[in-house]
Amino acid sequence: MDKNLITHRIKDICKSFGFFKIGISKAEPLEKESAQLKTWLDENRHADMDWMLQSYEKRIDPVSVFPEAKSVISLALLYDTPYTHSDSPDIPKISRYAWGEKDYHKVIKKKLKEICKSIELFLAGTEIETKYYVDDGPVMEKSFAVKSGIGWQGKNTIVIDPEYGSFFFLSEILIDVELEYDKPIEDLCSTCSLCIQSCPTGALYDEYRLDANLCISYHTIENKKEIPDYIDLNNWIFGCDICQDVCPYNKKKFFTVDSSFFPKKSIFGKTREELLQMTEEEFNNEFNGTPVKRAKYERWKRNLKKK
Ligand code: B12
Ligand code: SF4
Ligand code: SF4
């Protein structure tokens, strides 16, 4: 079958599962990005995320985890909603990607599984192999998304679509079929540096560069130890949206229709005092199946007490 036709049909299948943008790139080692990732790791910008260090070899080359892979299909799923965070200092903030009823890993994995089944059905007669990831594999998701034209990597280091902004998840399907490849798009940050100016902890220490040691998102989600005194969480208790909220490309235009990503009613607008009163059992019941559960009760309490 014609490569162009297969590519178009695969993109249509992905679109029918709610992904607003799909970009395809060749499965091959990432050269420039590998060097940048190496510098990042050598400079200990990954803080205590040792898994980033351990998976370096795999991250820089998708073929090392799936030798038959020919193409990387990058997919973007919007999670933005019309809701905004309260400005009240008594009401702590959970980042938009995590404030909903369901964990995006589960929601997206289900879609990717179905997409792969549909592709197999469409290509019936040809034996194909696929592997899919959402945030959980040794893949440089942003680099492949950039390579395939999903968006450009902004000075806040996040991938941005000129129309939809950056409040979207990335995921990818690796497939052993050669497809038509898309081209990167232009970097539209230009002279803007609002994200760098607004980051309260200086984690964006230079354009396009983030130091996890200083990032609120890292400390509230990934850091398993004490949060250093010099880190002011600025009222965030899980993740941080500041460097995206200020981005001119995130002026509210498009929203998800998936209620999984709308803020959890039972938590949204609750005060610090109210949240601190939750017992471990209540916490587990409330956040079961959501990204916040990842923090576990002890860290949730630590974040709430820190301010
Ligand atoms: C580790 C990680 C983190 C770490 C480190 C963040 C980071 N910037 O690397 C922490 C815990 C801090 C984090 C936080 C967040 N994360 Co995170 N994270 C990841 C993860 C697992 C790996 C990212 C990675 O490879 N980092 C390594 C460094 C080296 O990569 P980098 O910053 O992109 O570095 C590049 C640039 O520095 C660039 N560079 C260097 N010099 C120059 C110069 C120029 C001119 C240019 C253009 C580029 C450039 O080269 C490097 C390599 O390409 C990915 C999932 C995945 N498997 O890829 C999700 C992922 C990046 N995270 C995501 C999200 C949503 C977040 C948060 C928004 C969550 C939140 N609300 O709190 C924040 C955003 C913070 C921020 N400003 O980045 C999404 C981003 C989606 C998108 N639209 O881009 C991802 C893709 C998960 C997903 N599947 O959707 N995250
Ligand atoms: S997520 Fe928050 S702390 Fe981290 S770089 Fe963005 S603004 Fe700074
Ligand atoms: S705030 Fe400005 S500099 Fe930062 S990512 Fe958005 S457009 Fe680029």
Q: What is this structure, in a nutshell?
A:
With 307 residues, this protein is α+β, with helices and mostly antiparallel strands. It has 12 helices and 8 strands.
What report would you give on this structure?
The structure is a single chain. This protein is of the alpha+beta class and 307 residues long. It has two domains: 159 residues, no CATH class; 102 residues, no CATH class. Helices cover 33% and strands 11% of the residues. It is built from twelve helices and eight strands. The strands form three sheets. A four-stranded antiparallel sheet has the order 1-2-7-4, with helices on both faces. A hairpin with a 5-residue loop joins strand 5 and strand 6. The radius of gyration is 20 Å and the shape is globular. The chain starts with a helix and ends with a helix. The model has no long low-confidence stretch (mean pLDDT 97). Bound molecules: cobalamin and iron/sulfur cluster (SF4) (2 copies). The site of one iron/sulfur cluster has 12 residues, from helix 7. Cobalamin binds next to helix 2, helix 6, strand 7 and helix 8.
